[in-house]
Amino acid sequence: MNISQPIIKKIEDTRNALDFFEKEILLLEDKKTQKIIKNFPTVYIHNWKNSGKFEVYIGESNNIFRRTREHFDMAENNAEGWQRKLLNKKASLFIIGHEHFNKSLTLDIENRLMNYMLSVDSVKSVHNSRANPQFDYYPVEELDEIFNKIWMKLHKENEKLFPTESFVQNSAIYKASPLHKLTEDQKKAKEIIIQKVDEALSSEKTEQLIFIDGEAGTGKTVLNSSTFYELYCQAEKAKKDFQCYLLVNHDEQVTVYKQIAKKLGILEKYGNVVDKPTTFINNHTEDNPVDVVFVDEGHLLLTQGKQSYKGKDQLEDIIKRARVTVVMFDENQILTTEQFREAEELEKYRNKAREEDNYIILHEQLRMQANSAIVDWIDAFTKERILKKIPKADGYDIKIFNSPEELDLKIKEKAKKKKSSLSRVIATYDWEYSSIHEPKDRWLKYWEVMVGKWHKPWNRELEKNFSKEEKKQIKGLAWAEQPQTIDEVGSTYTIQGFDLNYAGVILGPSVKYRNGEIIFDPTESHNHKATRNRTLGDGSKQKFGELLIQHEVRVLMTRGVNGVYIYACDEQLREALNKAEG
């Protein structure tokens, strides 16, 4: 069945323009267009510029003319709301109709438009109060195609406000957006979290822990941001005082969350509620706990003192400073000795959550567009140290390369295409790097990954020579979103928590194959945070390098949404991978 094109009309966002448009509609010879605009549900986008960037409000209505006049009435009577800005700015209004629009479909179109606009660089603010995704209705199967047609038409109207879909979908903000439609798994978890938060806050309970286990790609970040935003929406609606923080250890992820909170108006109303764990701990006390703290990437929390953090366990310190703590955790992504937790200690936290029926597991793999056979192959490699025959699957590629040059060229080829522009080379931390010191060899301009004659700078190296203007252009972008990084090699420290279209993984000398088993060799690693001694609770010192390098490899190999390309420096591993591919 061919789905018709949407009807999109753009007018000035004024009463006079709206009155004229309503009269014009009545005079149309095309009665179908007249009927769709006047009698069907429509979606609309108010937009105007502020300090060189756009602000938008997206809505849906059964009567676009009445609803828009209500906005104008509110603009004239309300000095605080977003509507007031319509009177002071040169605004325009997009009115979107389709012959298949019904209430549920327009709500989903509205929600996806909000999600996209939140992710657009040129958009400063999205003023809608909350998302309202729909789930099962007729014709939900037409949603994607109708939305694609709408976005393409909007893109032709204004490329800056409506960039290509692939550009939006590859942005770090889009990946972490709280406006995504949740899976059943995520939806149930969100409902439980909100219920438990309500119970704790109404009963004056403190130090409540909600513990969520989920492996890489199971949707922890979206669940985190969605629930965080929903609680603020509920507080806004109830007009109650509310203190809710979102904590994450990665500088890049902090930037992403802050951009989301800023665009949704949370930072302006509630202050800096997105922070790093150490800053939060140092700025809050146990005798004055905040309402709720969300911890993304809880496996990155410190379990010993380090620099500005003087405590012994960041998770324990956060729990003492909040009435409810919601932590997202994946023990297979613990990468350093200072994050390492003994099994008994980790189980203590899980049991604390279980006692209150606050323990949740996310199972569904959402990042990799891969079937169960592909997931099983990666699990076997990165968890069981077993190399199985590589399965074939539509929609996801595992390819083995015999030289880093070939892998690099293939990733660059993928990165040139709009749909796979977020493709990068990443590697195990098996080559020297320092963010403080210059390379030891004077002839080296950058810290580099070197394999034979092939070499490429580590992440963050090329920007050292950028001008202030060039640095300004990449500020706020995740490492993989920055254009120059196609000529760099990423590590777990820049790519953890982010997606790539295709991940070109270089397995350095620390990953070997001997006697039918994959070996993780700490003596070949330059990741000193993983290979140094760790003092345990009983005072003994142990090394966990093998396990932590195994985790490092898992993080790298689970970054690709559409595929992972692999080059192994170890000759025996390379041969075994080639046989497994054949």
From TrEMBL:
InterPro entries: P-loop_NTPase, SLFN_3-like_DNA/RNA_helicase. It comes from the Bacteria. Residues 208-570 form the Schlafen group 3-like DNA/RNA helicase domain. Pfam families: SLFN-g3_helicase. This is DUF2075 domain-containing protein. It comes from Anaerobutyricum hallii.
